[in-house]
Amino acid sequence: MSSPLADRIRPEKIEDMVGQTHLLGEGKPLRNIIESGILPNMIFYGPSGTGKTTLARIIANTTNRKLHKLNGTSASISDIRDVVSEINTLEAPNGILLYLDEIQYFNKKQQQSLLEYIENGDITLIASTTENPYFYVYSAVLSRSTVFEFKSITPKEVEPAVERGFRLLAKELNESFTLDDGVIEDIAVASGGDVRKALNFVELSVLGAKTPAKGEKRHITLDSITEITQKNSFRYDRVGDEHYDILSAFQKSMRGSDPSAALHYLARLLEAGDLASATRRLMVCACEDVGLAYPQIIPIVKAAVDAAFMVGLPEARIPLADAVVLVCNSPKSNAAYMGYEMAAADIQKGDYGRIPRQLQNKHFDGEDNPNKGQFYLYPHDFENHWVKQQYLPDNLKDKKYYVFGDNKNEKAAEEYWKKIKGEK
Q: Nearest 5°: phi and psi at 70?
């Protein structure tokens, strides 16, 4: 039992794999491609532990190709040359299948070194990545490959693999096991869609259980599963796609006024220790999505964020949970934010113009100016502290960037200014 259980139990046939039915079910595209024996270059994209490496091995065996496996974190161009040296030799009579794991760690030059061989068919490439290939894989390699997305495996799909793991360990140890009700289900849920992690939990639960007396069964308790999985089950990469997906879901849940979902994503961030990302998105959402509908929320959320950093984790979850629910339950307005975006768009395309003379800083008028003077009207000198005058440049003077939002605060402000400006 020197190798991990996940390697010892690795499926040898597509039928034995769990999950990925959208790719490998009967009649599905990838299944048909494999069974045809004519392989394109492929990129497998998806979370770890979802079967990418396993499927590459099965494809190599099914199509009778020599499999070479390289890892982008450690492989070099010389390793690729070593693989290429076997082309058209007795070692690889039916061609070479190169499985390049974590291709995102190959730089552009390393990826380019593959092009000649995958283009002329000397090598069939299967590259895998946990990151979005459209961001991390060189475009020339991407254009010569077909991308297949692997999805996280559901707990129900993981359960058969967990059961197989217990059966194999019982056989290897020449023992029998008794499992508390819920052990298999708990391991499947705790794995987070990662079969490799689930099988690691299975192995740990067996090795960590009390060695039985002769003639007795090894007992796997539900409590022992909880102890093993509670701090090992969460998958979180602070720089990968999943990190940004969680942040996106967090803000969109607050914007969508769903406190239960927002608290769920807050917990995923804080349980991973990512206090900085959680507080940043919280502040952004308070300003962008609640904004002028409830402007008092900005100092309130800022105070909650300050308190969170003052007390640190795990107590930081308390003020942040309050702030998240407050943001969710508050009325929403992005009127100010959208007004800024419209103004910025005009500036970026060069549509601005000269600042009106009455708004400029006071300075000397040259002799060539026939109409000397600034002509600024000081609003506080007029009734209700307002006077009509032009503030935007001449070419934009009729532009409206801000439109009052449809909420109590902004509607009240709109009514006030309509009255002051005589628009009612």
A: -125, 155
Q: Based on the number of CB atoms within 10 Å of its own CB, is 93 exposed (0-12), middle (13-18) or buried (19 or more)?
A: exposed
Tokens of 410: 């902004």
- What does the CA dihedral 186, 189, 194, 195 come to, rounded to 10 degrees? 40
- The tens digit of pLDDT for each residue in 232-270 reads 555 555 555 677 888 899 999 999 999 999 999 999 888
- Over residues 135-166, the pLDDT tens digits come to 888 888 888 899 999 988 888 888 999 999 99
Burial class of residue 356, CB neighbours in 10 A (0-12, 13-18, 19+): middle
Q: Which residues of 370-396 are buried (b: 16+ CB within 10 A; e: fewer)?
A: eeeeeeeeeeeeeeeeeeeeeebeeee
Cβ–Cβ < 8 Å for 27, 36: no
Enter the pTM of the model.
0.58
CA atoms of 218 and 175, how far apart (whole Å): 7
Distant-in-sequence, close-in-space partners of 154: CB < 8 Å, separation ≥ 6: 19, 193
Positive or negative: CA dihedral 220, 223, 225, 228: negative
Say which amino acid occupies 331: P
Q: List Cα–Cα distances, 275 to 38, 119, 159, 253, 306, in angstroms.
A: 49, 46, 33, 18, 11
Cα separation, 290 vs 301, in Å, equals 11
Q: Which residues contact 233 (CB under 8 A, 6 or more apart)?
A: 190, 191, 192, 197, 201
